[in-house]
Amino acid sequence: MTTYDHSAPMGATGPQPPRWVCVLLGLFMVFAGLMVLGDVAFFTVVSALFIGWMAIAAGAFEIFHAFWTKGWGGFVWQIILGILYIAFGIVLVSQPLTGALLLTYVLGIALLASGVVRMLIGIGRWQQGGGIMVASGLFGVLAGLIILTGFPTTGVWVLGLLLGIDLLSHGIGWMTFAWLALARPA
């Protein structure tokens, strides 16, 4: 006979990590976020280098995969894509500041474009609560405009700032998870 544990929260797939591990991870992430925010220009360059090395690795694997699965079709396209990844990665690794500027410019354009699209979707779905989508789109448009109008100066700090904010929010999220787990009955 099969029994089910109804006390586990919806979506839980296994045992919960110990609370102290969540707190430790949260504290580490907050510390890392504060370190990044302490020198956003340095970590912008570090981010560009990391993305560059990952692009080179992904491109090499794409080319390897093309030869490995030659009979699947799309061989030439996989090779071209792999070469583009490697070339992009080499640019980022060899010129990390230029790469950071390039990444920041692309990010600004992407935020602006996605913001406009979200605003249009929100306006089209206004009756179904599209206002929040319009607000989200407006935030994207503003973020994109801030990046693009301040370019190239923003290219020196935006990636580091976003990484720092992400690490801080990630750490706070883990510590909140541990705190809420304490509040729940065992």
TrEMBL record:
**Gene Ontology terms: cellular component:** plasma membrane
InterPro entries tied to this protein: Acid_resist_chaperone_HdeD, DUF308_memb
Q: Which UniProt keywords apply?
A: Membrane, Transmembrane, Transmembrane helix
Residue stretches spanning the membrane: 20-43, 49-68, 75-94, 100-120, 132-151, 157-182
Q: What Pfam families does this protein map onto?
A: DUF308
Q: Which domain of life is it from?
A: Bacteria
Q: What is the name of this protein?
A: HdeD family acid-resistance protein
- Biological source species: Bradyrhizobium betae
The taxonomy runs: Bacteria, Pseudomonadati, Pseudomonadota, Alphaproteobacteria, Hyphomicrobiales
